[in-house]
Design goal:
173 residues; five-stranded mixed β-sheet; 3 helices; 13% helix
Length: 173
Amino acid sequence: MLFNVAQLLQEPIGDTRHFEVDEPGEVLEDIPVDRIRGSVDLLRTGAGILVSADFALRARQACARCLDEVLTPLAVAFEEEFFPVTDVNTGAALEMPAEPDTLTIDAHHTLDLTEVTRQYAWLALPLAPLCRPDCAGLCPQCGVNRNRETCSCEPSTDQRWAALGSLLGRALN
């Protein structure tokens, strides 16, 4: 997701650009997504460009209970300011802000949203995705997917809970 912002960097503070995005999911490398769709607004600031992005994507993950593939819808939205490393008119190197991990616009005046989008997508991923809310998961004895078939395994009692079960007068699994 590359944007050439050379023209915008030459314009006055407050000028904007709007882009619609429809990119293949491979651009995020380590997050398997099908497509990235959404919009990007660029606003010229005194020091650089403020990016407001709003993306919708679907990540392919494994269900936390049955391990089937799940397409998880994600909403990724962020606002970040990017600073140029070179002056657009002279090509001279510019001084960077003192904050660590400052987002930059490269020497060719290309603004790359790939890494920022990847990081925000990681934050949006659910820790335990489910294929459906009532997923029965895998049988702990035989490993059969209980969403597709029933197994003949007897429920076993976990001995760590036996003392609590005796207080209730029944066995706890």
